[in-house]
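call fold(seq) -> C-alpha cells
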Amino acid sequence: MKLEGGERLVLKSVADLQGSSTDYVDDFRLAVATKMRVEDVRDWLETLEGKGFVERIRLTDGFSAYVTAKGKQALRLTEPIPRDELEEHLALLKRLLINFPRNRGFLGREVELARLHAALSGSGSGSSPVGIRPAGSARAAGLFGMGGIGKTQLAVEYSYRQHEAGAYPEGIYWINAAEPLNQGFAGLARYLGLARTDQALDQQVRLAFDALGRWKKALLVLDNLEDPGILNRPIVSGCIPAGLSCRLLFTTRRRDLSGFTPVEVTVLPDDSALQLLLRHPKRQPAIEPSHPGHEPAVAITRMLGRLPLALGLAGAYLGKWSDPDKPGYVSLSGYHERLRTKGRLATVDVEAKKLSHNKLRSIRKDAVEATLRQQWGALDDEDARSLLLVAGQLPEAAVIPNERLGLLAGVAVRSDDDEGPSSLDEALRRLEDDCLVEELHRDQVRLHPLVREFAERLTPAETRDAFRLACAGRMAAAYEDYATLEEMARKHPGVTPLEDDLLTALGFCPSDERSVQPRLQSLLRVLQRESHHLRTWDLIQAPVLFPQQIRNRAFLLGLEPLARGAETRLAGLGQGHALLRWRASLESPALVRTLSGHGGGVNALALTGDGRVVSGSEDGTVKVWDLNSGQEQRTLSGHRSSAKINCPFNYTLGG
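ret:
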C-alpha cells in the first residue's frame, strides 16, 4: 500500500481538492495542481483506480476522480510528504480558484484575449489613458456584451491560460458577483484559510482584502457584476474593491463601466462559429467547403447570429443526432430548415454589423430561444427535464448546489448501493452534455441567464404555484428523514447550507399555504435553534454532537419522526450522549435562535431595520449580527467599560 512519487502526489491532490465532500475532481484541475501534463495525470489515475484508491468516471473530454475509503487509508499509512513540500503543494492548490472547469473546446477569441491581457497588464494601446482616474482604474478591466456572447467563458479561458503562463504568481481568484460581494469575499477568505466560519462576516471580508492588498501579482475575477459602480463603494468600512492592489477583472452586461477599461466581446468570427457548430467528430467533414453540408452549416451559423451560446446548443443537438445509420438522424440542411420554419429565424448575414444594436440583440435572443426549443424537445430523460424545470424557478445567475436541485426535483441524490453515479449525477451530466447547465466546481451548477428564462417559461403561469409547492413538499419530506439531514450536513459542513435549502423551499410556497409551509418552518426552527452549536460541527472529533442536538431539539418541538431517526443514529454510534426525556424548558416559545459570541453579559440591543441587530456587552464590545443566518458580521472593540448603544431603536436588557 506504499505510495511513491507521482502516484502519491496525484492521490494527495485529489484528496485535497475533494476536501470533506464526495465531489469528483477533473483531470485538468489535477494537472494544474500537480504541475503535470494532463496525459500523465490520466495515467496515474488509471494506476490508482487499479489499486482501488480512486474511482473514475469518463467525461466527454477527459476523466474525473474521487478518493475511495481505501485511498484515504493509503494516504494515512504512507510516509507523509515533507512539510516544506506539503506547504508548497497546498499553497499551489489554493492559488487557483476558478468556479468553472476549463472549456477544452474553446475556440477563437485570440484578439479579445490579447486585448484583455494588455488592459490588465497596463501595456499596449488598450491600456487606460494617462491622467486622473478612479483609484485602481489602471488595474481594472471589464468584459461587457449581451447575454450569450461568451463573456464568462472568455474570462475562464484567460484565467487558465495566464495561470499556466505564470502571469499571476500570487494566484487567480474567482467570485460570483451575482451574489452579495461581502459573502463572496468572506468565502474567499475561508477558502484561503485566512478566516473561520465562526468569525464576524466583516472580519472575514477584511482578511480577504488584506491579502489581496498585499498580492500585487494576483488576479481577482468578479463574474456577472450587475453594476460596475459598486467597485468604487466600500463593501465594509475601508474595503473598496477598486482600490485593491491586485489586478481586477469583471464581467457585466452593462455598457457603462463607470470609468474602468472596457474590453467588448462580440460574436464569433465565421471560422470559429463553424467549428463550434460542427465540433462533433461526425459533423467535422462539413467544415470543408466542398462538402455538401458546408453551405447549410454556414447558413445555420449566420441564422444563429454567430452567438456562442446558440451555437453551443445547436452543436450539442447536432452531435446527438449525427449518425446517419441510426433512427433520428438530423441532416444539416434539415436542421437549417427546422430553424427557419419552426424557429421562425431569418439568416443574419455578413452585413449584420449594419443592423442596430437593439435589432441584433432581438435576433440573437430569438436564436437562443430556437435552439433551446430543439434541445428541450429532444431531451428524453425525465430526471433531467425535472431538474431543468426546477432550476428555472431559481434566481438568475444563482449558484445552485447539486443536492438542493435534486431534493427540490425529487431526483435521487445518491445511488442505491452508494457506489457509482446517482440518478442526480446522471441527469446533470445529460444536461451538461446538452449545454443546458454550466458545471461549476464544488458540486454546483448554474444556468446561463437566457437558459434560465427559457426554463422558467416551460412551467405555465397558471400551474406555477402548484409546481413550486410540490418542489417545496419534496424538500420537506427529504429533511424530515434524519439520515438525509445528516448526510447533507456531512457533505456541506455547518448547518447554514441546510438552512438555505429550507429557506429556498419556503420561497417556493404561496404566502397563504398551510400544509407544506409549517413543516418547513418547523425543520428550519430545529436548525436555527441549534446553529450556534452545530455551525462548526466536526464529524471526526464529535460524531454524536449533530444527532444529539437534532434529537433533543426535535423532541422539544414535537417532531417525533425526526427525533426517532436521530435516536437510531445515536444508538448505532455506541458513544455517550445526553437525551432529554421530558419537555420542560424555560426558553420562550418565541425564541428563534441564539447569538453566541460575547464574553460578558449583554446589556443593550438595537434593531437596524434591515435584517440586522446590534448588541452591546459588558465585555466592552459591540457586535453586529445577521438575523437571517445568526452569524456575527462585525465586532467593534475598544470600549473601556460596558458598551451601550445610542440608537432610536435601543432596548436595554437586565437594567
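The longest helix spans residues 357-378.
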